[in-house]
Each structure stands twice: as structure tokens, then as C-alpha cells.
């Protein structure tokens, strides 16, 4: 029995290590994207580098056995299709529209989950041990719909009102800040239940 538990713990640790490696690799495409742009100012080469690094991320993650989410797979497909179109047709609007397209799809999925099924997308993906009132989780899910639409709209404003250099800065730094603000706001809204959740996780480890 002890040996079985030890094996399960080892398997869980290996799985967590693989996922940590995948999380690290996930940041490399945007880093490569930024470095290529700021050193070359060539949007087509920069886009090609993004497609290559995103593809490498998917391949390496599969090879090491890391779990890939539907969102990661979907993002890779969008980058490949829109990035490839940008490079082939020499039209940077394809890749610039990516954020808006992905966020619009996410907004539609999150919004439809309020109408279809008993649980919203957020409720389906959070751990069962995270105990928060259903209405609060639905509120955060609906807030995500609004956020995706607003951030997608802001992306289009930057695309059509500013130049490519400003768009790249927004893509790398602006979207990071927007995402951080939304996630931070959501955590603050659910802070009471997050505290209980982390305390219960610590008790399980000890």
C-alpha cells in the first residue's frame, strides 16, 4: 500500500514537472516575437518566428508528455493560420487581428455557457475543492465575457489608429497588463474563498 502511494506521488510529481516545463516553454514564442521585432523591425520575419516557436512549443510539449489545453491548441492553430497568411500574402492585418478573433471566440464560448448547460465555463474548470457561491462564479464568468470583448476592441483600435511598433508594444506589454488586471480583480473578488482553498491544499500536503 505504501509502495503504491509512493508511486502515485512520484507519478504526480513527474506530471507536475512536465507541466512546469511546458509553462516555461509557453513564454518563449512571445519572447522570440519581441526580440525579433525590436532587432529587425520586420513584421513578416517576426511573424514567421512566432509561428515557428509556437509550433516548437506544441511539439516539445507533446514529446515530454505535458498536458496541452484546448486553448493552447486553438491559439497555435490561430497563430499558424493567421501568421502563415501574413507571411505568405505580405499582409500584417492577419496576425494583428489574432487577439481580437481569439477573444471574440472566447467571449462567445463563455457567454453561451450561461445559456447552455448547468455550469458556466469557469465552474467547469475550477477545482472541485474550490468552494465559492455559484452566483459569484457566474459573475466572474460574465465579467470574462465583457473583458474579452473590450480587450479585443482595444486591439482593433491600436491596429487601425497606431503604427506597427505601437501594436507590438501593446501586444507584449499592454495585453499582459490587461490580463493581469482582470485576473487580479477576479482573485480579489473571490479572495475569501481562495484563502480557504489554499489553506485546505496546505493541510493535504502536511
Describe this structure in words.
- The chain is mostly helical and 206 residues long.
- Helices cover 84% and strands 0% of the residues.
- It has helices spanning 2-40, 43-64, 70-89, 93-96, 98-112, 121-125, 134-161, 164-189, 191-205.
- Helix 1 (2-40) runs antiparallel to helix 2.
- The longest helix has 39 residues, at 2-40.
- The protein starts with a helix and ends with a helix.
List the helices and strands and how they pair.
Elements: H1 2-40, H2 43-64, H3 70-89, H4 93-96, H5 98-112, H6 121-125, H7 134-161, H8 164-189, H9 191-205
Quick rundown:
By secondary structure, the chain is mainly alpha-helical.
List keywords for this structure.
mainly alpha; 206 residues
The string of secondary-structure elements, in order, is HHHHHHHHH
Average residue-wise pLDDT? 90
| Overall form | globular
The beta-strand count equals: 0
Amino acid at each position: 500500500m505504501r509502495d503504491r502511494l509512493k508511486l502515485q506521488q512520484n507519478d504526480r510529481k513527474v506530471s507536475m514537472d512536465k507541466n512546469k516545463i511546458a509553462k516555461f516553454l509557453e513564454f518563449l514564442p512571445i519572447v522570440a516575437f519581441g526580440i525579433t521585432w525590436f532587432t529587425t523591425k520586420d513584421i513578416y520575419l517576426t511573424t514567421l518566428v512566432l509561428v515557428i516557436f509556437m509550433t516548437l512549443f506544441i511539439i516539445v510539449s507533446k514529446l515530454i508528455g505535458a498536458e496541452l489545453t484546448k486553448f493552447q491548441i486553438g491559439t497555435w492553430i490561430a497563430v499558424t493560420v493567421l501568421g502563415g497568411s501574413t507571411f505568405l500574402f505580405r499582409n500584417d492585418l492577419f496576425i494583428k487581428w489574432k487577439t481580437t478573433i481569439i477573444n471574440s471566440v472566447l467571449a462567445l464560448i463563455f457567454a453561451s455557457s450561461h445559456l447552455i448547460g448547468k455550469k458556466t465555463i469557469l465552474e467547469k474548470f475550477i477545482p472541485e475543492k474550490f468552494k465559492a457561491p455559484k452566483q459569484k462564479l457566474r459573475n466572474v464568468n460574465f465579467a470574462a465575457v465583457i473583458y474579452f470583448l473590450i480587450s479585443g476592441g482595444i486591439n482593433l483600435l491600436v491596429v487601425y489608429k497606431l503604427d506597427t511598433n505601437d501594436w507590438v508594444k501593446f501586444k507584449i506589454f499592454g495585453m499582459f497588463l490587461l490580463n493581469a488586471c482582470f485576473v487580479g480583480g477576479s482573485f480579489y473578488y473571490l479572495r475569501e474563498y481562495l484563502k480557504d482553498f489554499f489553506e485546505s491544499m496546505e493541510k493535504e500536503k502536511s
